[in-house]
Design goal:
By secondary structure, the protein is mostly helical. It contains 12 helices and 3 strands.
Amino acid sequence: MTFSQYLEQKRFTPATVKTYTIYIQTFTDWLAAEQLDAGAFTYNELLDFIQYLQGQGKRRKTIQHLLGIVRHYCNYLTVEKQRSDNPAAGVFMKGVIRKLPSNLLSWEEMEELYRQYSIQLNVPLVSKVILGMLIYQGLAAEEITRLEAVHVHLREGRLFIRAMKRTGERWLPLSALQVTLLGEYMQENRLKTGSLLVTGRKQRISPTNINNRMQQMMKQLRQLNPRVINAAQFRSSVIAHWLKANNLRQVQYMAGHKYVSSTQRYQLSTLDDLKSELQQHHPMS
């Protein structure tokens, strides 16, 4: 199996496979020039490679990107039994700024929003269903549009989410509050197969028009809580909340993150929020 085939097996897009295959050549060419074996290079030699890239004038962000590809390459070599370790596993460039989630909503705020929004008479039932998915499953808008009626298991109280380009498939529990509303919605629209999100005329809500619906929903939610920003804020807030009660790997699965580093960002953001709160309210500040 080649490195390209390994990446394809891991469901990387054709464009990403092509890019990674080209970029790894920089590393393999360096190994050849240094007369090093890909199956035997060490952590210290990887640091030499970083120094080589810095000497070539490569930016930190570019080096970070290359290190990520080398990590995949080492995993590939492990699968092929050419290595038993991954020396690139814990190697990251210092000084590379990574955006952390901010302006998180508390769990109490989100649940109160769901309760208040659910009793609004002028809000379509499908919008209430969407909000439930944002809060109780922490789904992204695109994941919600891909849901089908068969993915909802009301009797078992759980929901199946299909894998996407950036997220993995998973099963998530439904809240008791959701089950009643979802049952009412599916019965009203006689949904047994096909897309879960439909309008009153049984027209599918597509990825294109869900953005307009989301914007309208956020506008309504801001009237209930001015701190509401957008759908991404809800997902970030939910993941941060999950981390308070579950371990990192469990939350990685629940969030559908392919890499644990994506989940760790939310641990950092909750610590950052705590520091900000202490600075704001500490008597010595």
